[in-house]
Write a structure and sequence with these properties.
alpha+beta, two-stranded antiparallel sheet, 4 helices
């Protein structure tokens, strides 16, 4: 359902101006009315659905302001994370012992396995035609790269394989 905005028009108060009598004094030219003038409020035509949706206006006295209590939701709110949720730090435990640089991988006792993983990654990149060798023009900036090493384990925490990735 599309709701149209409700516009209210401000009331325009017109104060009558009384003309000065002919031959009178200039101070008598403007006279103030004895009773306050009634405000002229034009009626605004409203659509049928606007009348039904608007709450009826309640007149309150100046001495007693009408304040309604705020409505609060009565539904039971559940947390997005259940109470029995446990966080396992698996990433930190898995990276323990993995080399962080090429030099560290070549100095480790599994250097032959890391070397085989790097050769497998290079073979995979060349078969997928990931990059082409080009001559670098003078003054051009080159994109550096580094090796990221990861030991893959099975569900019983036994070493399944050694993986090496070349990242830019």
């Amino acid at each position: 359902m599309i709701q149209e905005p409700f516009f209210s028009i401000l009331a325009i108060v017109v104060t009558p101006v009384v003309a000065a009598p002919v031959g009178g004094t200039p101070s008598a030219a403007v006279s103030e009315p004895k009773a306050p003038a009634a405000a002229v409020v034009p009626e605004v035509p409203t659509a049928a659905h606007e009348e039904s949706e608007q709450p009826p206006e309640v007149e309150s006295s100046a001495s007693e302001p009408a304040q309604e209590p705020l409505r609060r939701s009565q539904r039971n709110r559940k947390s997005a994370i259940p109470a029995n949720y446990e966080v396992y730090i698996s990433e930190d435990a898995d990276t323990e012992g993995d080399p962080t640089s090429f030099e560290e991988a070549m100095r480790s006792r599994y250097s032959s396995k890391w070397q085989a993983a790097m050769e497998d990654e290079m073979r995979s990149m060349s078969s997928n035609k990931v990059w082409d060798l080009e001559e670098i023009p003078k003054g051009a900036k080159t994109v550096g790269c580094k090796w990221v090493y990861k030991t893959k384990r099975d569900s019983k925490r036994n070493i399944e394989r050694y993986k090496a990735r070349l990242v830019a």
